[in-house]
Every structure is written in C-alpha cells, then in structure tokens.
Amino acid sequence: MTRDPVPESGPVAVIDIGSNSGRVVVYRRDEAGMLRILSTTRASLRLVSDVDSGKTLGPEAVDRALDALRDFDTVARGAGATRVLAVATAAMRDAANGPQLIATVRQELGIEIEVVDGAREARLGLRGGISGLPVESGLFFDVGGGSMQVTRFHARRLLEAWSFPLGSLRLSGAFLKSDPPTRGEIRALRDHVKETLAAIGPQLLGAGEILVGTGGTVRNLAKIDRRKRDYPITRVHGYALERPRLADIVDELASRKVKRRDEVAGLSGERGDSIVGGGLAIDVLASAIGAPDVLVSGQGVREGLVLSLFESEAPSVDVVRESSLRSLVARFAGWDGRTAAERVHVAGVLGNAVGVRSDREVGAALARAARIMDIGRSVDFFDRQEHAARIVLATELFGFSHREIALTAAVVAAAGDEDEVGKALAPLVHKEDRAQVESAGVILALADDIVERCPPDAPVRVDAGKAADGLVVTVPALRHWRTRKIGARFARVFGMPLVVRVSAP
Hints:
Elements: E1 12-17, E2 21-29, E3 35-44, H1 47-54, H2 59-78, E4 83-88, H3 90-94, H4 98-109, E5 113-115, H5 118-129, E6 138-143, E7 148-154, E8 157-164, H6 168-175, H7 183-197, E9 210-214, H8 216-227, E10 240-242, H9 243-254, H10 258-261, H11 275-289, E11 293-296, H12 301-307, H13 317-329, H14 337-354, H15 360-372, H16 384-394, H17 402-416, H18 434-452, E12 463-467, E13 470-475, H19 485-494, E14 498-502
Parallel strand pairs: 1-4, 4-5, 6-9, 9-11, 13-14
Antiparallel strand pairs: 1-2, 2-3, 6-7, 7-8, 10-11, 12-13
C-alpha cells in the first residue's frame, strides 16, 4: 500500500491511537465535499492505565496495541485506502517507551505514527468537531481517556486552546477508588477538575455562544439520555444534552457498582469504569462556564485530520449545509435536479401567498423538503414522502440542528399523509408547530402536483394571490386541472377554497 498523498477522491484511512481505545476509519470525500465512511473498527487499548502506574507501556499493553494496529492496517487495505494517517495522543505522549512502539509499527506495517501534542490535538479536534454543526462561537472540549482539550473559538476559528490531564480513565483511576465511589472521592475529583480548569481563567459563555463537546464519554452520556426519552433521531451528532440531565445521569452511574453500570441503556460496556470520572469533569466544565447544555459532536480528531488535508479552517455553516444536501440527493437515482428546483420555486410562491413562509423555521424546512422529497422514489413511488422523511431522520445532514432536520422530515411526511403533522417527532417538533407543519405539507403536496403536470421542457411559472373566491393560482403551462383531494385538504387547512386557473402561456 502506497503512503503517498492521494487526490481528493482517494480513500484515506485514519488510525487514532487514544489513551482508552483505538480506531481506524476509512473515508472517501464525495463530489459534494462531504466525508463518507467506507469502513471502521475499534479496539480497547487502555494505555493510560499503564502510563499512570509506571510511566511506561507494559508488555500486555504493547501487545494489545500491536494486535489492534495490525487489524487496523488490514481494514484499511480491505477498504482500498491509498493513504494511511496515524495519530497518537496523551498516553503515547507520556509513555517512556512510546518511541519504541512507534519504531516497531513503522518497521512492520510501514505506518508512520504522529504523536500529536496537546495544542495540535486541540486544533484537530476543533476542526473536525464543529465542521458539521451549526455553531459559530463558543467553547469546545474533547475528553479522551487521558486528557481533555478545551478550545475557545469564534466565527468557527480557533482563538485559544488548552490541554489538561483530565481524561475519563485517568481521573477515574486516580480518584474513584471505591466501588461505587464515595461522596468524598467524587468531591475530591470535582475539586481537582475545578482547580485545573482555573488555568483558562473566566470563560463564561457570551450571548449566542455554545458549549460543544466530543469524545466517547460525552457521546455515551448523550446515548444514555436519548434512550431515556422518546427521541426521534438515533444519532448523537447534534444532540443537545441539557446540563441538569447530564448531572442526573452521572449521579445515577456513580451510585452503581461498575458491574451494574452496563444495565444502563446506552452505555458501552467497556466504559463502565471510566465514564463517571469523565462525566464529572464535563459537568464541572459546563457549570463553570454557565452552559445550559452541551451540543454533542460525533466527530473530532480523526475527521479534523482528514478535513485538514483540504481546508485548514472549517467552512461556513451555509457551505456545509449546501454540501450536505447535495451529497444526500446525489445518492438517489430517483432524484432529479430540475424537478426539485421547480418544486422549490412553486412551493415558495404558494407559501408566500398564504403566509407559510412567515415562520422562518418552517419556511426553510419547506424549501428543504421540496428539494429532497424525491429521494423517497428510489424506495417506493407511492409512499415516497414517508420514505423520504425516514431517510432524512436516519442520514447525517451536517450543518443542521436536530430540530431543523425533524421539521424537514415532518413537512415531507405531512405532504403525503394529512394525519402526519409531527406528533412522532416530539420533542423536536412541538405542539405549537403542528398547524404550520401541516400547512407546509399541504403547500408541498400542491406544488408537487403542479410540477408533475407541467411539461419538463420549460420553466414552471406560477402566480398566486388571495381573492374573493379563495387562493387563486395561475399556471400557464397547465393544460388541465381538476378538483380532487388536495383541494378539500387545502380548504380545511387554510379556511378558503383553492382555485387553480389554466391560462395560455
């Protein structure tokens, strides 16, 4: 396998040797500029335990690491990776015999491992962690097994970064000796974290600033919280973990013996002995800066390393959103760009005429729904709206909040089923949203009907306005329009008749 630089379309494998676990992910950058995962696997390494007890990696830890790296290399080759990037973080930084392990890997596998310092780890984590989130400014943290990186960012650019030995496995091993831990041990850990974080000075979040977090600990805490709720989106990327709920989950885990923590739905078994230490550190940080919640990122150092090959800084949220939508629709043969554009235009004219777009969130969701609705055709024509809604909820739409994703899915679903107005999407689509969602669904269904009946060889021109006899819609390209179910539904939702007039172009 060549290790030379590859063109943007070539698969790139990233090996991340963390203090608690290791992982390889093989990425391909698609034509829209989004990363797609081709293959991945992980292994428990727990290197930091050896380093903290003896300042060196013991024979068993070295064997675990080598066995995992051989498997990672095999996965990379199997996925067709033409370039392998490998990074190691806190445990390898601190291990006296880390260089020997690196030399062995270089000789046996031809992989060059970069041991990143805390500043570079923070920069890579920020680059990957915020790239797919709708955030501009705030504080970003990455909690691993051995360290915590904290970064202040503004306009999606790094301002200042700190690295602390506050990893989940390291803290748990140093402070939480009892099973379950005592109140005194928990208090000592919290005090230690608070004293350590004092080095960053007063960092209260300002208006519009957000606390963003990544790493296995915070993602596991988010999974636990999601499982406790009737929550419609399964992935944790973009999940808002409220601080009171975070504190409750950490308290619940701390009250259990380690062997009983895996009974908590959403917790990965291998994190049972470390998640309390990491969770307490996150809670202390969130409390210190006055964050009401933590916005969880599913990305971090690995993605930051790959994305940095193409752009050193995170692109704007609008660029990420557009790239993500283009990436999504490109995967479905049933989607047609011209038809989608016409549907967006017609839905916009109709929505403006009846005031649907006066609600900015629902208006934006209507435009997205009109654009992507036909991805459902690739599954089934007759239930295309339902399938499209499910795909939107299941896929990774980067740059959008979970609420924006849920509203988009709700509008698409409402276009196909007048009884589907977002009930199943609570708590992201609220009771007070349902009337607007149903209105947007009617407009989308009407726009789809109109575009479907217009010839494909000319732009669809539509005029719409309220008159004494109802909403009058004029479509020159239509040869005929008959009243059917959409008319009755429109009248019920908007309280006025729908009049579609056909005129000569």
